[in-house]
Amino acid sequence: MNGAVNHDHEDQQHAEEESDTPAVKSMVGQQELIVEGAICGSCVTKIENAIRQVPGVMGAEMNLAQRTVSVTGEVDTQALVNAIEKAGYNAKAVGAQSEDDAMEEKEKSERAYYRRLMREMTIALLLGVPLMVYSIIGGEMTITTDSERLVWLIVGLLTLSVMVFSGKHFYVGAWQSFKNHSANMDTLIALGTGTAWLYSMVVVFAPGVVPDMARHVYFEATAMIIGLIDLGLALELKARGRTSEAIKRLIGLQAKTARVIRDDKELDIAIEQVLLNDIVRARPGEKIPVDGEVVEGHTAIDESMLTGEPMPVEKGEGDEVVAGTLNKTGSILFRATRVGKDTALAQIINMVKRAQNSKPPIGRLADIISGYFVPVVMIIAVVSALAWLNFGPDPAVAFAIVSATTVLIIACPCALGLATPMSVMVGVGKAAEAGVLIRNGEALQMASKITAMVLDKTGTITQGAPKVTDIVLVAGESEDAVLQLVASLESGSEHPLALAIVESAEERGLKPEKVSNFNAIAGHGVEADIDGKHLLFGNEKLMREHNIDCRSIVEKAQNLAVEAKTPMYFAVNGQLNAIIAVADPIKEDSVAAIKRLQHNGIRIIMLTGDNRGTAQAVAERVGITEYFAEVLPQDKTEKVVELQMQDEIVGMTGDGINDAPALAMANVGFAIGTGTDVAIESADITLMRGSLHGLADAIAVSKATLRNIKQNLFGAFIYNVAGVPFAAGVLYPFFGLLLSPVIAGAAMAFSSLTVVTNANRLRLFKAQEH
Amino acid sequence: MLLINIAGVALIALIVWWFWLYKAREVALDDDDLVIVVENGTYTPARIRLAANQAAELHFLRKDASPCSEMLLLPELEISESLPMNKSKSIKLPPMAEGEYDFHCQMQMYRGVLKVE
Q1: pTM over 0.80
Q2: Where does residue A523 rank: exposed (0-12), middle (13-18), buried (19+ CB within 10 A)?
Q3: What architecture is the B25-116 domain classified under in CATH?
Q4: Which one of A534, A540, A553, A574 has the fewest beta carbons within 10 angstroms of its own beta carbon?
Q5: Would you name the residues of A annotated as active-site residues?
Q6: B106 contacts on A by Cβ (under 8 Å)
Q7: Pair B99, B90: CB distance under 8 Å
């Protein structure tokens, strides 16, 4: 239900008192800033002098060890930041609120608001319920005598006080909206309850202006509706809180303090004060406070909270550590490489928040309807009243008032408005918990419709960390000589196969030689000169194009390929010299994950730049029947388009670098992140752990979310489409049925609560057992 | 009865005019002090005029505790921001082409328009 609810001044103060938050952050007194770039005593003087030049500053004192400066005076923080920056340093305010604090403050404010709603609800129902019971047990609700008039006048005034105390926010909100030429939920509630009360007061004060049979009062309806809607709002507030549990958990992963080493001293400082390149210590059992690179020590780190990967990951010198993960065994020192809003965790939180508030296309119709809904309902109420007045039985005036009031009260644009965002909120959060980052609502909806999935082989199905397995000499002198030359050729390349060769050479203690005329031929290999020799290294296609005879070794190469190894050819001065075979092990759970996708009716296609034999061997091992070998990076996009031409909704999964165009072309691009690397801009969905189960999880959670949205939208549409005519009295001529405004109030209050509760069911969603 | 019917039709015409046909005046975003207050189910001001092809910044101050007022969405610009209670929040807007851009809460009960010209 809507809470287009105002806050009167007292309530505001009340909420502020309860949340200990001033309306505007005071700039008076003492404030603290973090300064980056200060390294010595002269920096301190320079910064302090720069600050003292700012009008309003009474004093400035810098703590070099903590890189903080404390400023006294009446001065704008931004002016201080500007002055420090002008002096050549970077600065930011301490206490720039952390996500954690902001969430806590929000919860405090919501608790205060909840208590206020419950208080208002209690007062309204204290009057409404006895009146309601009185009318149900047959109490007289009409006015025939003067004493009855007096009694009902008192009740009317009590109802007015309920309207002021418990429903003031509806009336003020409605009036403000009206002045702005807009209408919202408050408008409907204010009009509905206001009409019922005004009509009843007319009956009390001037019974003569309405026919005898229509001298009925509806004070119980006004009080009950206000009470029930306040109750609905309060319950909805609670239910809404649960929809953001996933983001709360992510925010909760952030450490509050960090232990940094500055000037040979270890200091515990607030997380906001950690600077780039600070050396940070993480002891066993502590959370990693910021992203960094290990410079000393060895440990195992539990990254499951971010990647869903249950096994702790071994970390040593040079390895990356990520904020929010848990240091398990050893004590390490690491250099901060990303702090504040730049950490992977902060980016994940940001991305999830954004996605949670984006809407999939399925919600657009509801959005359009919401925009016109309230005025349309007002028109229906007028038409309904006119219809009763013209054609209704006696007392037509009472029927007209009841039907118009009921129409206004039962209509619930908020159920429509909430149907999509609540489910997206829970669904995207649930996906994040499973290590699946969904960029936006559109990706969420599209992922639920995928019919074909294109998988890149290297790094997706396989581990992407190949190793040299065989060196087959043809004319080469020795394995080491061949490996040294090839490693020299590949030393500048970042291709996983090249890395495998360079690593293998390093393991054998071979040093690379100087290379000239280097040329990388996309999808084929490389060529270069060493010591006047022209070298070629790459696939069979490269050899063919240079007319190098490979016949003598074809059978051996084919045998290697059958073993899922990638044979690469090495030629010196136009003569085949050797074959180096590299194998990239298949990920442990690729077979099960692919089976899971196929079980869901998804067509799986594997693409690889590898030769046909290796591709076939890998495909057979993982149960893929459709595969394309020797595909150049630029051809991957074409394959995606081909599938789209076959009316497939195509998902493309790759590492996000070579595959960027294909990922962008696919209906949904999935990037397999390495650990927690979320800087993959070209993907719609990022899988933080390497497992392909993430794909199946992403599709499953998307389907569940879309199903939930459809249920919500269906419920909200049906509720309004059926409820409004029913309230107007279309069933009366046939069955004599006319809805009571109180029942309408209860239905309205709980319709949006139902939507939020249904969205909350998604929290119970569990991806299929792996 | 005729008078009541005429009054009813006039009321419907008034609803149509007031809520759909009437275009309220926009407030120009020509100084940085303009704060859009989120209170009582409305944004005040709700119609804001800004220059085309220029980056701009909007300042929102949420005074309404209702959870509906918390989220601010500008769908065309793919902006969604959470507004803290009783604290000003700045939203940076990229340069925009001429046209009207809606901003609203999650359920579209709070609504406003940026008129870019």
Answers
A1: no
A2: middle
A3: Sandwich (2.60)
A4: A574
A5: 456
A6: 357, 417-418, 421
A7: no
SS3 track for A16-79: HHHHCCCCCCCCCCEEEEEEECCCCHHHHHHHHHHHHCCCCEEEEEEECCCCEEEEEECCCHHH
Q: Are B47 and B89 in contact (CB under 8 A)?
A: no
Closest Cβ opposite residue B19 in set A6, A11, A182: A182
**Distance of alpha carbon A79 from alpha carbon A85, whole angstroms:** 10
User: Nearest residue of B to residue A169 by CA position?
Assistant: B40
Q: Is the peptide bond between A395 and the residue preceding it cis, with omega within 30 degrees of 0?
A: yes
- Report the DSSP beta bridge partners of residue B115: B49, B100
Residues of A in contact with B70 (CB under 8 A): 106
Q: Which of A6, A183, A370 sits opposite B39 (nearest CB)?
A: A6
Rounded Cα–Cα distance for residues A336 and A36 (Å): 13
**Residue in B16, B19, B85 nearest the CB of A15:** B85
Q: Report yes or no: A65 at the B interface, CB cutoff 8 Å.
A: no
Size of interface A-B (CB pairs under 8 A): 159
Pairing of strands A467-473, A313-315: unpaired
Please give the ipTM for the structure prediction: 0.87
Mean pLDDT of successive 10-residue segments in chain A (770 residues)? 39 40 42 72 79 84 71 78 80 66 81 93 95 86 86 96 94 89 88 92 86 83 92 86 82 88 86 88 91 92 78 87 89 92 84 80 82 92 95 88 91 84 90 87 93 89 83 81 86 74 86 81 81 86 84 83 83 87 86 93 90 86 92 85 94 76 89 58 79 91 95 91 92 88 86 89 76
The counts of H helices and E strands in chain B are 1, 10
Domain coordinates in residue numbering, chain B: 25-116
Neighbouring residues of B97: CB distance < 8 A, sequence distance ≥ 6: B52, B53, B116
